[in-house]
Amino acid sequence: MYCQAEGRCTTFFLRNGKKIMSSKNLGEYSAILDPNYFFRIHHSYIINLRHLVKISKKEGYFCEFPNGVLLAVAKRRQEDFNKFIKLKE
Q1: Prediction pTM value
Q2: Distances from the Cα of 41 to the Cαs of 16, 45, 46, 80, in angstroms?
C-alpha cells in the first residue's frame, strides 16, 4: 500500500497487514517503482494509488488506506499530487 523511510532503510506496508523491511533507501525505490501508480507524497512516504480508500482535502491533503492509516501529503508536493491524481481519474 505504501513505503515508509526509516533512516537508510525502507519499510513496505502490505495490504495483508505484513511489513517488509529493506536495506535500500526510499529514493532508490522511487526510481524503480511504476510512476503510473506510485507517488512520493512526502520525504518519508511513497504511496500506491491503487490502494487509496479516500483523499481528504481539509487543511491539506491526507491519503487514507484500507488499514485506517492517514498519511499527509507534504505542502510542497500538494500541487504535483493534485495534477497526478487528476491524470489518473
Answers
A1: 0.89
A2: 22, 6, 6, 9
